[in-house]
Amino acid sequence: MSANRICQLFGTKYPIVSGGMVFCSGWELASAVSNAGGLGLIGSGSMTTDILKVHIAKCKKATQKPFGVNVVMNDKAISQAHIQLLLEEKVPIVFTSAGSPKLFTKELQKNGTTVVHVVPSLKLALKCFEAGVNAVVAEGFEAGGHNGLEETATLPLIHHVRTHMPKEMPLIAAGGIASGRSIAAVFALGAEGAQIGTRFAMTKESSASPKAKERLLRAKEGDTWLTVKRLGPTRMLLNDFGKKMRELSDSGASKEELAAAYGMHNTRRGLFEGDVDAGEIEIGQVVADCNDIPSAEEVVQRLVQEFNEAVAQVGKLTM
């Protein structure tokens, strides 16, 4: 796995990004991934500004390598407060999602920050290009957590975006990637980086509860579901909570009813506090292939080795 535009943009050895996941991606995971040669992200979506400040400070002490913060923009007041903190702390890289890429991009870039925006469609990728972001993450609906209304899978999404988005915009693939072989597949379609969530959520440094990690080790194919689509498509584990939300969604419940039953407190209850039956666990389809809890460094090393082996194997093929 050699350096490319994504490595040059982030100042990393490898074009591997650990997704900024709520209740999983704290300073410990972010710094471990960065120290291993990737780009570690702190997930600010579940943090107050004061807590985020602590995570940034600890991350700076734990690594001299580049790291970033993911900012979810569905709450304008909270995201604005987070962005102000990132400007003050001079965080080098910021990923934004769930809002307009025009909102904070120029302000961050004037401060010397590299800005990346996450999208589920070509339409929104083109808006990112117009907004002048430094790179785009195109995320397929295999991903855990919140997804796009289009429900486009990663392979057709990456092919479509790379075909129609101007080539000068670097592209990172996300959704359903947990091995070096998967990275090789999206690179063949034109991606230059991979953002990986589920595999890094199930590492020693992930701040997810040990009980949640243990439960995820038992997850099989088909144990996640994209549900609450009227509220916002969300992929979650089909535990008791997930099944309840699916039944409620399938019954035709209103947005208000879904919101009342959903709530961030349930995500905290499942992922962070370890109530693996009654709490929500947002996780991707590839959880079925994540069968251990290694260190983040081990994951990065595996990804690189598997990628190199896959590329070498494909290089022997003819058609």
TrEMBL record:
InterPro entries recorded: Aldolase_TIM, NMO
Lineage: superkingdom: Eukaryota
Keywords (A to Z) from UniProt: Flavoprotein, FMN, Oxidoreductase
Chain segments annotated as transmembrane: none
One of the record's GO molecular function terms: nitronate monooxygenase activity
UniProt GO cellular component terms: cytoplasm
One Pfam family here: NMO
PANTHER family associated with the record: 2-NITROPROPANE DIOXYGENASE (PTHR32332), 2-NITROPROPANE DIOXYGENASE-LIKE PROTEIN (PTHR32332:SF20)
The protein's name: Enoyl-[acyl carrier protein] reductase II
